[in-house]
Amino acid sequence: LRVRSPGRARPVLPEGKERQRKRRRRKKKESKTRLVRSSLLLPEAEPDKSKRTVLACNRLKTTKYTALSFLPKNLFEQFHRLANVYFVFIALLNFVPAVNAFQPELALAPVLFILAVTAIKDLWEDYSRYRSDKEINHMECLVYSRNEKKYISRYWKEVKVGDFVQLRCNEIIPADILLLSSSDPDGLCHIETANLDGETNLKQRQVVRRFLELFTSVIECEKPNNDLSRFRGYIIHKSGKKDGLFKENLLLRGCTIRNTEEVAGIVIYAGHETKALLNNNGPRYKRSKLERQMNADVLWCVLILLIMCLFSAIGHGLWVWQYGEKKKPIFDVPGPDGKYLSPVLASVYLFLTVIIVFQVLIPISLYVSIEIVKICQVYFIHQDKDLYDEETDSQLQCRALNITEDLGQVQFIFSDKTGTLTENKMVFRRCTVSGIEYSHDDNGELMEKDITPDPRLLEKVNECAKHLEVMRSHEQPLTHLSPELCDVFDFFIALTICNTVVVTAPNHKSIHRFGLSTLSTTSTDSTLLKLEEKLAYSAQMNNNGYSSQQGRTAVGGAPEEGELRYEAESPDEAALVYAARAYNCSLVGRLSDQVSVELPHLGTLSFEVLHTLGFDSIRKRMSVVVRHPLTDEINVYTKGADSVVMDLLLPCSSDDPRGKHQKKIRSKTQNYLNLYAVDGLRTLCIAKRVLSKEEYGCWLKAHLEAESSIENREELLFQSALRIEKNLHLLGATGIEDRLQDGVPETIASLRKAGLQIWVLTGDKQETAVNIAYACKLLDHDEEIITLNAESPETCAILLEQCLQCVESKFSNPIDGATGNVTVGFTPLYPPSSSVLSSLGLVIDGRTLAYALEPALEEKFLALAKRCRSVLCCRSTPLQKSMVVKLVRDKLKAMTLAIGDGANDVSMIQVADVGVGISGQEGMQAVMASDFAIPRFRHLEKLLLVHGHWCYSRLANMVLYFFYKNAMFVALLFWYQFYCGFSGSSMIDQWYLIFFNLFFSSLPQLITGVLDKDVPAEVLIAVPQLYKSGQNMEEYQPHMFWMNMIDAMYQSLVCFFIPYFTYYDSEVDIFSWGTPITTIALFTIILHLAIETKTWTFLHWSSCIFSIILFFFVALVYNASCPVCHPPSNPYWTMERLMGDPMFYFTCIISPVVALLPRFLYRTLQGTLFPTQLQLGRQLSKLSPETRTQLLAKLNVKETICQTRLFADSFSPSLGSNASDCYKANNQSTPLPPSPQTRESLFREHTKAEHKTDQTAAASPEGAVLYEENKLPSSASSLERSMGFHEVRCGTSEVESLSVGTTFPWSSAVDQADFSLLKWITSTPLFSHIGTVLQVSSSSLQNETQDSMCVLGPSLHVDFKGLKEENSNNLQDKMKGTPTDHCKNDNSETTFL
């Protein structure tokens, strides 16, 4: 039906459709919010009780299982692993009579064992969670009882939504509670959120408006979510009026009440709906890179298994077919119907049978073994005392248990600066007030609380205070005060009050008031019982619902005895407040609407705080609006980053003398800010604005609307702050030092030697970040820095294109075939290790980075960045940090690690392959989002170079060994099929077959996987280059899998055919022949592991011996107790008879020797003639500590000389100018004399030039030109020299030497004396102790040097035997020649290996 109205046509829907629309609208609204009512309402008064949503109780349950659900649920979870499903399928297949190969019950044993071990592990973990839950659920709190009309003690698990809860000081909050009342007369409550985010500083929470009407009102709030920084809702009163609720009114579960005697509130969210539990995701699970490669090899094993089964099935079909229908062998038994199987059907059955027989090829215990090894690795990492920080009493935490091996394969490190590389403990070092700079150099070795004031500034503060005292006594206006003294006064007032610092006394009680000596003792019991009294009291409440306390005096008694403490949300705020206190301008009390400041000669002044505009990352500033106690003016004090505050200053007129003076002050202040940044200080600008009553009244109206808004409140408050933070008057600026953590430069230098490319992503300004980068050795003074600052995407594209063209054109030179020489130029290979990378660093600001991360430019940006040894991204936002990490991870397919300490690093940490959090000053958000947590940045060195390398090496070798062992054992069964008509029979007893991998050979590989150390920790730290083996995946490459498969095939042939020919034509039964094969296979497998083991301990020897003894013990007991197990052939007394036969012992000795001889010879020859870096590192570890230290020290000295000469040579004649379009061509380059004086002077010039921070790559409309402010021509040749681009040539013979190993290159002539059997044997880890016993005497060290080994290039021959003989003359001889002879290695920083 349609009804037309005169003004507007509107369709009228039928009543049913209109009702459905309203219902959908109501449902949509209800889906976003929830209603909370007081639990004190009588049951009959509860409206629509049947329709109320069931709310969660406060019971904590983190367990996954119950007594009834454990078995089915755990099995269901385990069957999510395809491997477990496969093995259960094989075991069940064995129950089919037509295809079974073993006793069905016995075939189930391995699967049940694996499932049982995993289930027991899961059960233990769940029981631990149950005990923790029980402890928390039985904590007590006070809940108001309607029946008893008082607060009674109840367990946490009994608390419900709508209950009124009372909390006292130092109690933990049991649920998310809306704050209704506080013993604080200003309605404040202080909480500590350490349990939630690790931050120990106190945070203020506020009582809600007009809470007294709540008992008959309804709370409507958002549904439970995990956003800790957001809470939205409102109270709907009976009158229909709404009052907004915000995060300042909510007490979160897990926080602790501090400095407040009593608070009460109503439970909004309980149990698993609280924000704390919604954020608790538990440990993170990732798939490591090695595990992904291992899964691919498992698929290859499946393919090999199918091929073997298919081959056997075809062979069996042909074998059956050759007999025909009339020539059936006597052992071919017909079916129940008297008919024989056709060849095709026999092949199908046989295919399924041999799948059961060959199932061991898929390693059933591999996944469980890896989990056990990783848990043990994590345990030993936790026990490392070097990763414990005594100052913070914290140690390494491993939050992701399954990516420990990824620590040994990291290629890129992305690091935050503040709090990660630095201490995040701020020290006040500089300040400028009214254009005059005051140094505080004496604070360099002091902490934030201990500040030595500048005498000149202190004198001005005292002078200002005296003038103010006189003016106040004579009631004179402050305009009589000079502008400079006014700025000094306002500067320190701003430092004192423009913050959120909480003042506490030594006994941890908050200092809020003066003149009010006692806290209000009004019990919150009476709040609920005496509403009439409270309603009368409400007449004294102001609009915000707080006691107005109009009669309160501003000046009162001093605080309690002892020094006041400041609880700040950031170290910057605390440093500034302590600095102000050093100048006798002390913050002594803070209320919600008042800040008390103690000044010399003036006593305590109380500033009425009208509004606080908090800091945010977009505005980059905070402001307070106060009423000045001396002038009654409304002042806005602003503190923020200079990059934004300087743009908000009131424009100055050049015609006005005062305007000229202000311009001069701003210019001086900007210069000082630049100097502070050069010194690596964190800079802040301080400014103020005086508002007229009309301006304030106009702004206040809009601001109150924004504050009371429920929807879009943040945006409205942001716009309101922008309207008042303008036309500011500059007071001064501060420079705060954030000290580097101990060991940061050394750690970065070591990580870079290890082949890791380090990117620092910081929000600091460019100059500050660059100077910190120099201080921490991220950037070196011998590097040329490419700085990218672009104002538009077009400019950024031009800069990237031109820089890429220059770099690629200068370092992509072909081999000169005519002269037989090679030009060593830039090779853009990954990972970055060439010497050219040592001369380039990239600095990019946040705006340019935003352009560079756009899809059209990201490829060019990445191409340029990966050619630089270090990258520094300044003014970057948290989102940009994560985008940079994701770009490198996805585009380069590189292993990335992100490390940070604050909430702004969480996104970066979560995106990286490995996330590392630092438990620093900015809370625990980064730690909670990380995979690993460390106390200090310096601990990253040992975590990666030692534990990461060990974890990767152990797991890689263990996985390869697993594949080898299973393939070797299955191949024995496969060879036997050629002699049994491919019938799926086995010459190995089924008990041995089932338990061989599960028990007899499993323990040694687990011990090796947990405890093996291919190189000792001290060598891995001293020679960081050894870490590159993990980056290059040298321990586990695809070809190694196939080499192990081939070796397994060969060993199985030896272990099968030697016993075969030994017992050929004898009368032994099948098990008397198969048992020696099993024994030989066990010996071979264990000795194979012994050859591959690098470190031998008591546990290694014990596990190998135990496995052999266990096998013989089981065999003897089993053979003696099983007389009729497999008729007509049975294993009774088989092992007992064999142990009396000498041929059995001979076979068990000769077969493993022949089987392992090729691998043993390969290891010894390769270790002697072509040793890898790791093998040479192990040889280095065998030297005495004194000899090893002397060798490494000598190599470090030579490295320094080599780097110096290479750097000096970078100023020698460069390539003929073949400039690209982005640079002005200059084809003339004057050769510089290669004298030491010239090189030294150039070194000084270059170092001096590096200190200039304004070398930028800018773009002009005509084109971009890379320039330096040294007034030199910007030519291609000069650019090449400044950037270290140079031509390096070497002879053919030298090139041949270069082609040998980069780290421990061997000379072309091999020392024949080392070609001995003793050398071969002692180079094998299993027999390394023989080398210790048979070492040559110390006198051999005095023999003539023989160049069997060259370290750091062919011209620097350092032989272990000639170490003590080399003297200074030899050193000078070896250092002769071109500098490039000494630096042919792929990294100019290479020290050793």
TrEMBL record:
Name the coiled-coil region(s): none
Q: Which residues bind Mg(2+)?
A: D416, T418, D901, D905
Q: Where is the composition biased (Basic residues)?
A: 19-35
- Membrane topology field: Multi-pass membrane protein
Q: Which residues bind ATP?
A: D416, K417, T418, E573, F615, K639, R682, T762, G763, D764, R875, K881, N904, D905
* Role noted for this protein: Catalytic component of P4-ATPase flippase complex, which catalyzes the hydrolysis of ATP coupled to the transport of phosphatidylcholine (PC) from the outer to the inner leaflet of the plasma membrane. Initiates inward plasma membrane bending and recruitment of Bin/amphiphysin/Rvs (BAR) domain-containing proteins involved in membrane tubulation and cell trafficking. Facilitates ITGB1/beta1 integrin endocytosis, delaying cell adhesion and cell spreading on extracellular matrix. Has low flippase activity toward glucosylceramide (GlcCer).
Its protein name is: Phospholipid-transporting ATPase
